Amino acid sequence: MSTTLRRGDRQDLDLLLAFFDEAVEWMVARGQPTQWGTEPWSTDPRRVSRVGDLMGSGTISGATRDSFGSMLELSWGGKTPIALSTGGTRSFIEDGDELTLAGWCQGDGYRVGFGPCVGKVTPAIPV
Q: Which of 8, 43, 63, 77 is deepest in the core (most CB within 10 A)?
């Protein structure tokens, strides 16, 4: 038996939306509708667009540079190096880089998020 992996792209949108629709159904059946909602994602144009953005670029971003969701977007596909606080520049992350992620969302009277999640980029394992 042989398995071939390929990059996903916008042609896979229907398949991924079906996955999210099934996840919604599964969560609702277990009495936990708050995480995924109660309606299929495939019927919500806003969610369809967001999933399409995720598949097209690997991120979900806003329209301005301060809302870009990845280094790939910030460097315009590696064409425009980013100035680092250490004085160098970089177009892509590299082996040995340490990345820190933290995030939150907020609304009227609440803020929910997660603290720093730190990881180090290591060389790929030869196959």
A: 8
